[in-house]
Amino acid sequence: MSYRDWGRGRGRGGGGGSNCSDGGSASTFSDGAGHGGRGGGRGRHPSHLKGREIGLWYARKQGHKSKETDRQQRAVVRMDERREEQIVQLLNTVQTKTEKDQEAMSWWSGDEEGPEQPVKVKPEAEKAPVRQRPVLKKTFLDRDVEYLFEKNEQDTDLDEQLKEDLRKKKSDPRYIEMQRFREKLPSYRMRQELVNLINNNRVTVISGETGCGKTTQVTQFILDDYIERGKGSTCRIVCTQPRRISAISVAERVAAERAEVCGNGKSTGYQIRLQSRLPRKQGSILYCTTGIVLQWLQSDKHLSSISHVVLDEIHERNLQSDVLMSIIKDLLNIRLDLKVILMSATLNAEKFSEYFDHCPMIHIPGLTFPVVEYLLEDVIEKLRYTPENTDRRPRWKKGFMQGHVSRPEKEEKEEIYRERWPEYLQRLRGRLYSASTIDALEMMDDDKVDLDLIAALIRYIVLEEEDGAILVFLPGWDNISTLHDLLMSQVMFKSGKPRILHGDSSSSDSVFKKTPPGVRKIVIATNIAETSITIDDVVFVIDGGKIKETHFDTQNNISTMAAEWVSKANAKQRKGRAGR
């Protein structure tokens, strides 16, 4: 059916849309006796009913109408089954167990060999105070889980040992070399101010621009402060990351700055699903994904052994992070000794401060170098690029604004775009862009990322520009794989095979490695390269301008992933990757 036909059909059928809600005609209301019967007119009982059956029919009809009226007055929340199951599961993890004989099931997602088994936990009524070690089956009391449930009590001998180790470390050449780099970071210059604010408040919000070092430095400031004050054994920091690759790369970086290996009983480690390198049990920093902390809460709802919870990248809102934040807020009423640090890469810290009862905020300026920006029209002008001719595009841009948006919203945005387009072209003419550039802009499909243009731009940079890695941002795997194939089809890119940075951490290690002399590193990534992850040698950033976001399709009752235009905050983050 064409758009025009669909519109007419909707118009003609509009008047009959209320039949079901008001009880309908006899043909739409069943008498429950299996008769197909014809009605005796609109709202009348079927003609075959007699006597008492007529009264029962009207009674059922009235009951149906009352239920329908009640249903229409209720608030409705629409979500798909997967999201509903997630919410139910997360709420169940923190549900208070009041019945004496109720048993909880605890599951762990670590590296343990063999099948996982349910573990019985003592009912709430039989538990001792918060600091009691949770009861777990013996097979789980090693490796990952042992780290979580180790008692966090002060050990004066260990305090002295940690203090002595830190003193010796300061004379280690590897530590000294890393210290020179750390001292250049804006966060390091604010070290004492940050430590004092965290020590004097239960909740602290830290915002910091790209490159300020908040993710790698704040946790070290806290740990070193505790060690220097002779309280190192009581410090156990957990820092959440939105992605697996972030947890791994940040932990390895922090370990390197401390002249240590990652995990293996040293001060810094990480834990993600099915993979871990755990630090020592006391006086340590653990980087992990948000889901890992939610798993811990199933077995220890008070996070009894943790002294500091650092929630990093909180501006990247999702279901898990929002649920964890609400749990942590409630947990503060029980764990009076718990310290919470919220860190955001954008200047929206006020919202999070308000949520945590107007807790104090602090901003760390960024350390970036000047970045020259080239817009789409600049690139087309420089490359003299001509897009694929699709019958000279407009009308209007043939499918512009596709995606999850509703029809009224789509039409409204298309109208605004159509009105502003001539003004935009006139500005370009006034800035002396060539007619071929303006024609190319008119022919481009604004709803898609032009991968041919990006491939041409990469080729230009490799041949004409100075040395330095190229980082390309694309919305999803389909675009990444297509661009990768486009580049690999050209002989000049085969020696330095483009690296892919996607959600799969197993294939991401190569993006951080240096390339041999004469080989240009090209990294094709999704938005996971915007924050936390630092690729040191990036000089050029190509921003595709799109990002994949999850939306809920109310008409089809499903979740969808659609490519949307990036926000200004996202664009700024991406730009900052070239100024590190």
How would you describe this protein?
- There is one protein chain.
- The chain is of the alpha/beta class and 580 residues long.
- The protein has 19 helices and 16 strands.
- An 8-stranded mixed beta sheet has the order 6-5-7-4-8-9-3-10, sandwiched between helices.
- Strand 8, helix 12 and strand 9 form a beta-alpha-beta unit.
Core attributes:
580 residues; alpha/beta; Rossmann fold; 4-stranded parallel sheet; 39% helix; 14% strand; G-quadruplex DNA binding; Helicase_C-like
Concise summary:
InterPro entries: DEAD/DEAH_box_helicase_dom, DNA/RNA_helicase_DEAH_CS, Helicase_ATP-bd, Helicase_C-like, P-loop_NTPase. The protein is of the alpha/beta class and 580 residues long. The protein has 19 helices and 16 strands.
What is the fold's blueprint, element by element?
Layout: H1 3-13, H2 52-73, H3 81-93, E1 104-106, E2 119-121, H4 143-149, H5 156-169, H6 173-182, H7 186-189, H8 191-200, E3 203-208, H9 214-228, E4 236-241, H10 244-257, E5 268-272, E6 275-277, E7 284-289, H11 290-299, E8 308-311, H12 319-331, E9 339-344, H13 349-355, E10 361-364, H14 376-383, H15 407-430, H16 435-443, H17 451-464, E11 469-473, H18 477-488, E12 499-501, E13 522-525, E14 538-543, E15 546-553, E16 558-565, H19 568-576
Helix pairs in contact: 8-9, 9-10, 17-18
Oligomer: single chain
* The CATH superfamily title of the largest domain: P-loop containing nucleotide triphosphate hydrolases
Question: What structural class results from the helix and strand content?
Answer: alpha/beta
What is the helical fraction, as a range of percent? 25-40%
- Major sheet details: 8 strands, mixed
Percent strand equals 5-15%
Uncertain segments: 1-39, 96-142
Overall domain count: 4
Number of extended strands: 16
Taking all Cα atoms into account, the compactness measure Rg is 30 Å
Distance between the termini: 53 Å
CATH classification, class level of the largest domain? Alpha Beta
Q: Which fold name corresponds to the CATH topology of the largest domain?
A: Rossmann fold
- CATH architecture annotation name of the largest domain: 3-Layer(aba) Sandwich
Overall pLDDT: 78
How many alpha or pi helices?
Answer: 19
Q: What spatial form do the alpha-carbon principal axes imply?
A: flat
Strand order of the largest sheet: 6-5-7-4-8-9-3-10
Domain Helicase ATP-binding: 195-365
InterPro entries: DEAD/DEAH_box_helicase_dom, DNA/RNA_helicase_DEAH_CS, Helicase_ATP-bd, Helicase_C-like, P-loop_NTPase
Domain Helicase C-terminal: 456-580
Pfam families: DEAD, Helicase_C
